[in-house]
Amino acid sequence: MVNFIDIEKFTADELLEVAELAENYKNFDLNSPIFLNNRDKIVALIFLENSTRTRISFEIAAKKLGLTVIGFDSEKSSLEKGETIKDTVLTLKALGVNAIVLRASSASSVNQVSKWVDIPVINAGNAMRSHPTQAMGDFVTIREAISQGRFKSENINSFDDFSKLKIGIVGDIIHSRVARSLGELFERFGAKTYLIGPEELLPKFDIGFRVEGITDDFKTCLPELDIIIALRIQLERLTEPLLVNPIFYRERYGITGSLLESAKPSTLFMHPGPQVRDLEIDSDIIDSDRSLILKQVENSIYSRMAVLTKTMGLEIDGINNL
Amino acid sequence: MDTTGLVEADLVVDPKGIVAAISKEINVNELPVDISSIVQVEAGGSVIMPPFVDMHCHLRAIVQISEDYESGCRAAAKGGFGYLMSMPNTDPATDSVDSVLKARTLISNSETMGVKVEIASAITKGRNGVKPVDFESLIRNQVRYFTDDGSGINDREVMQTAIRTLEGTDCILAQHLEEKSAFDSGIMNLGDVSTKLGLAGISKNAEVLMLARDIELLSLNSVKYHAMHLSVAESVELVKKAKDSGLKLTCEVTPHHLFFDETELLSLDPNFKVNPPLRPYADVVALRQGLLDKTIDVIATDHAPHRAATKEMPIETAPFGMLGLQTAFSAAFTSLLDNKDLNSLNDCANELTVVMRAMSLNPRRILGLDDGTVVKGEKANFVLINPMKNMVQTHGDIESRSQNSPYLGRKLRGSIEYLFLEGESILMDGKLTK
Ligand SMILES: [Zn+2]
After folding, report:
1. What is the mean pLDDT of residues A113-119?
2. DSSP state of A319
3. What residues contact residue B397 under an 8 Å CB cut-off, 6+ apart?
4. Does B409 contact A at CB distance below 8 Å?
5. Under CATH, to which class is A132-295 assigned?
6. CATH architecture of B47-377+389-432
């Protein structure tokens, strides 16, 4: 595993290895001194698009691994002064940086950077294309829920039953890199993906992964679903104002108390964040035990630790033998 | 006899650049197609054709570092071209007698390797689609090719005025088909691949709607109309119907629209960002078919150099366009062969004839040039091709000042071995003579 750019580039076995390593990290005493061995390795976090959550998550992940982290925001950097991304990453490489984590508003930058430098490049979100480490964190979260018996009533008892899961992704599908990465991941492991949202936010062509159903009718689809992943409406990516108004959106696609009544008692809710409370998902659901949102945040750190470990080839004694 | 400059084959050029002998040992009657214009050179089963003519290339020039007349002509010569129509989307636009004369002076002061470069003018001032250029004075100064290439003429009235003004002249009115409303600031073809990548798409309607409108205008007034770089099946269909109904129009396809489909964009490499965009494979097949059945008249390169720093920008902001002069023949020939095995010249005589028609004979006819037939006793003027030889382009091969070739590392079939222009040896064994 040299780079980590798109979920679809990896086999199920490779993705499972990352997930299992993340799970090991979660159960490991991270204060153990062996992690300090990585201090001479430097990770550059280049965030050309604002993202507090992903950035902090990567920073914590790298620090937990004992890596040295340098931040690089576009506002504060020479990129603002007309330097190209190529010159920036070549300079970082020359300065001795060992890996690059890149968030960009362009779909292509992370692929381009991976060709310009021969150090690992990790995609922290590229435009609307991919957000693979978010998908890995969500994957770990779902695996955890299965192992805790949350879907026992549906006869989903272990990861072997993953393909029985029916997962609905709700909201702004067309602008969502998270939806694309999750869709590719669910296809790898056979789960059934449903895309749900107002027509203008659903794909009009093949989105590139296997879709079980695509509909603007959430209410009808809902009783089938084991997991509902609500997405953020990406107002900044809309080329024209949303036709549906917020009240209408909440009524039809919001994760609300009244909606919960027609879902199975075992159905769980997720949101990649940052969520708009009481529009995309109601506050009392976010705060209930039906919500996996905070677990997603926590697991994203372990997944990013696993991705950094695999791509950078970090050797950490004992971690694989737990 | 001094053998310097002598090309030994069944065709012999003497040291003064005169064709000394041509023999046609090949039994043409045994071939499946009419290859009367192909002259076989026995050595290695090579063929000769009249030098290629590119009706559509961007030589930039006028202080642009992506290309100049010299580098552009070196690339052209390596690709077997003897004549180029240079597009007017320079900066500033070539839209006046003054700018045309300036370009011509620049050309005559450049080493063009014997390649003739003609200057096209914009249709509208500044290429902004509003105010027509001064056609009369431009025509008086021997300008015969008008296009706003890079943009289409969106305003119906403006297009109609241009058609009426050029009606009855021998001038070509060439349209870059791009209806702004359907183009929608897209980056690549609108469809499955753009949806997967989350990139803004360009609808095929951007091309089809404008072509349909132009064909309608042509039914009212007749002009030498030329539809540039067709990219979708519907366009081929529209041209076919228009031709069947008796309208006189011509059209072109680029080698890259014959060779690549939209899935190349999965690499997110800005070198594959081109306008019109690469389309789905079904369109590629329709374009090849259109060429084979003569609906499409011309293969033109749309050679568009862009310096590395701009093609290294994010794909959303990188400029449209790719190199094409050096690889035009091989890319077109390879795409028409469609993986067919070649054991002898006979196996590819049809494809060779189609490419020769589209890259040499038809553009010569449309532009009113001589037919370029190789005649014993006259100055050697031909390109010699080895259809059996494969090539893989590397950065070092590129003569352009830019490196944005989409063919780097791809296996291409057929190789340009020799080029003679007006008795002068320009290319020998695939290498430029100076
Ligand atoms: Zn054009």
Report:
1. 97
2. G
3. B78, B326
4. no
5. alpha beta
6. Alpha-Beta Barrel (3.20)
Active site (annotated) includes residue B302: yes
CB A107 within 8 A of CB A128: yes
Whether the CB of B181 is below 8 Å from some CB of chain A: the reply is no
Q: Which range has the top average pLDDT, B11-25, B178-192, B340-354, B398-412?
A: B398-412
Q: Which of B98, B214, B302, B397 is catalytic?
A: B302
Q: Do B198 and A203 touch (CB under 8 A)?
A: no
Distance of CA B175 from the midpoint of ligand 1 (Å):
8
Domain spans in chain A, listed from the N-terminal domain onward: 7-130+298-321, 132-295
Complex ipTM value = 0.94
CA dist A270 and B26 (Å) reads 74
Asked if the Cβ–Cβ distance from B198 to A127 is below 8 Å, we say yes
CA of A100 relative to ligand 1 center, distance in Å: 38
pLDDT in tens, A279-288: 888 888 888 9
Domain with CATH 3.20.20.140 in chain B: 47-377+389-432
Cβ partners under 8 Å of residue A126, min gap 6: A5, A102, A103, A104, A106, A107, A108, A109, A110, A111, A177
Binning pLDDT at 50, 70 and 90, where does residue A228 land?
very high
B376-384 average pLDDT score = 87
Kindly list the residues from chain B whose CB atom is less than 8 angstroms away from the CB atom of residue A173. Answer: none
Residue B327 has pLDDT above 70, yes or no: yes
Among A174-183, A258-267, B300-309, whose mean pLDDT is lowest?
A258-267
**pLDDT category of residue B64 using cuts at 50, 70 and 90:** low
Question: In Å, how far is A152's CA from the nearest CA of chain B?
Answer: 34
Q: Residue B28, Cβ neighbours under 10 Å: how many? A: 13
Domain A7-130+298-321: which CATH class?
A: alpha beta
User: What is the 3 state secondary structure string of A91-116?
Assistant: HHHHCCCCEEEEEECCCCHHHHHHHH
Residue in A90, A102, A108, A180 to test binding to B, most B beta-carbons within 10 Å: A108
Question: What's the rounded Cα separation, in Å, for the pair B254 and B290?
Answer: 12
Question: From CA B358, how far away is CA B361, in angstroms rounded?
Answer: 6
Give B171-209 pLDDT, tens digit per residue: 999 999 999 888 778 999 999 999 999 999 999 999 999
Taking phi first (over 0 means left), then psi (-120 to 50 degrees means alpha), and beta for anything else, what does residue A240 get? Answer: beta
Q: What is the pLDDT of residue B181?
A: 84
Does B36 score more than 70 pLDDT? no
User: Best residue in B265, B312, B395, B404 to probe A by mutation, most A CBs within 10 Å?
Assistant: B312
